[in-house]
Amino acid sequence: KQLDEEEARKSGKENATAELTEEMNKWRLLYEELYDKTKPFQLQLDAFEAEKQALLNEHGAAQEQLNKLSDSYAKLLGHQNLKQKIKHVVKLKDENSQLKSEVSKLRSQLAKRKQSERKLQEELNKVLGIKHFDPSKAFVHESKENFALKTPLKEGTTNCYRAPVEFQDSPK
Q: Model pTM?
């Protein structure tokens, strides 16, 4: 009897161990599957991190260059040599005018592109049969009381949309 109880306990423990091993294998498979799914994303995250570091380094270098330029600019404007000041101011004005012309050129290009985009969108809407609201036609109505009639009323005519009675063919 005691041997049977020991054997039952042992088989129960073996069953529990087998269940736990099976569950552990299931979780291991799920983990490996999830790891395989996230591996490309991890590579992408690493690439983004490297790009972020490169951009931060570039930003630091640009900031350092900006500081150097601002220091040299302050020294140049504080310089006692009037010719150097004048040359620098002329250079700045030329640079400013170049930038303004570039901005105006880019704005005109942008306006042209927006206009062409609008035209292409209208053509696409026509092809697809999409009707757009036209504000110029919003308050235009064909029949209004203050407009002159297409055919003026004459005696005997009660309907303004039919031809006058005189001109209708009547059976004689």
A: 0.33
